[in-house]
């Protein structure tokens, strides 16, 4: 049964068609980065209005790309939360209206569950159970994934998420919004060891994260200084090394504690090259395999929502009322 997936949790409008046998048939994505650049961050009301403009043309394009008529779609999956409530309401209202018009189920999907399942879109998907590192602009957490809907949060950020720290540090370095990818590109030219920043919370046990102090350390290092391009690259490299070291050590602890044989990395920061290399090495230390979604599915997209909706549909998700839009929705409240 083919599923149409719709993602509108923040500033990307994503639409995809997924078939449980043939796999992903199409995916379309519109990003609002250019619109929000002038403000240095996402403006919620502008994001909501743009989703309204983009959804219908993207659905039509995704159906055409998939060669799928509306009659071949068995359900519409949409991101129900967490996220910006206005953006979520646009996607949820559109998806539920479309499902009503087509007389098919509407299935609300947890945004983070979509990210956790994104590696299943790859040619060699990981099997359950697995340990997952979800690292993005809004979330940084380690999750023990026993099965679909069986999630146990082992540790999470107590303040800034890793991706948020990337963006804020990029702003300190004068990089354009969104700064995470620009900082990583700048760090590629930086020299290791010229600067050194703290590795937050590695001096204590546990699996929680904290990145606000790291961002502050960069601000202090930059105070009153005018940096040339070489020095800026060195700072970017030192910051990236600190984040990668922290995430790597926490994953090492989690693999040791859980004994899982598969490590899944998802979320926008999961596209970082150095992080992927280090985590693949750590997984190998424990005889585990590492799994990453392709970079285009690390950030928000409709494909992961369509896949999650398909798996939910197979579990009987169409038996109850569609999930309401929720700005806040703890992952451990998802259920199976």
Q: Can you characterise this structure?
A:
The protein is an alpha/beta fold. The chain has two domains: 2-117 and 297-333, Nucleotidyltransferase, domain 5, CATH 3.30.420.40; 128-292, ATPase, nucleotide binding domain (Nucleotidyltransferase, domain 5). It is built from ten helices and ten strands. It has helices spanning 33-36, 44-66, 85-102, 111-117, 162-172, 179-187, 212-222, 229-258, 273-285, 302-314; strands spanning 2-7, 12-19, 23-31, 73-81, 106-110, 130-135, 140-147, 150-156, 262-266, 289-291. Strand 1 and strand 2 (12-19) form a beta hairpin. The chain is globular, with a radius of gyration of 20 Å. The two termini are 20 Å apart.
Gist?
With 336 residues, the chain is α/β, with parallel strands linked by helices. The chain is 41% helix and 20% strand. The protein has ten helices and ten strands.
